[in-house]
Amino acid sequence: MKIYTKTGDDGNTGLQGDFRIAKSHPRILAYGTVDEANATIGVVLSNTLDDDVRVVLNTIQNELFLLGSDLSNQNLNDLKNRISLDMVEKLEKIIDKFELELPPITNFILPGGNVAAAQIHQVRTIVRRAETLVVQLSDKDEINSNCIKYLNRLSDLMFVMGRLINKRNGIEDIIWKP
């Protein structure tokens, strides 16, 4: 099978259920940004990481693929929601576990530190943009509302994970100084 189909040469793309929409449609922008976050996590995974962080990131990559699938399904009569509240709650438990290793936040923290932590902060910003685009999509089309909750929690996890990676590498939080 060839990777190119030429069916998108007119500026449209296919969705689940044989729907075709413009590549500039909010649905495409939303799940394209989810894909961007996923690809950037792939960059993070090219670093040396602790096993627990690596396992979490691998799981998230798979879950982001499911989230993109939820967003690409426009046939509401056939909506197979894959992102669940249970998945959101699992992210919360990971956040709680990682935060046990971190000092409380008393200041705004700037992104940075080592390369992996800086890249995780980049993922966080991409996830925030994806969340915004998914919210915009939800204003126009019905979607699995758990996608918004998942992305909101995921950006929180990326913030905590950036701090955790730095701490484990002996790098203190970079404090914002106005």
UniProtKB/TrEMBL annotation:
Gene3D superfamilies referenced in this protein's UniProt entry, alphabetically: Cobalamin adenosyltransferase-like
Compartments where found: Cytoplasm
Listed SUPFAM superfamilies: Cobalamin adenosyltransferase-like (SSF89028)
Sample GO molecular function, one term: ATP binding
GO cellular component: cytoplasm
Keywords, sorted A to Z: ATP-binding, Cytoplasm, Nucleotide-binding, Transferase
Domain of life: Archaea
Sequence ranges assigned to domain Cobalamin adenosyltransferase-like in this UniProt record: 3-164
PANTHER family: CORRINOID ADENOSYLTRANSFERASE, CORRINOID ADENOSYLTRANSFERASE MMAB
NCBIfam families according to UniProt: PduO_Nterm
Protein name (record): Cobalamin adenosyltransferase
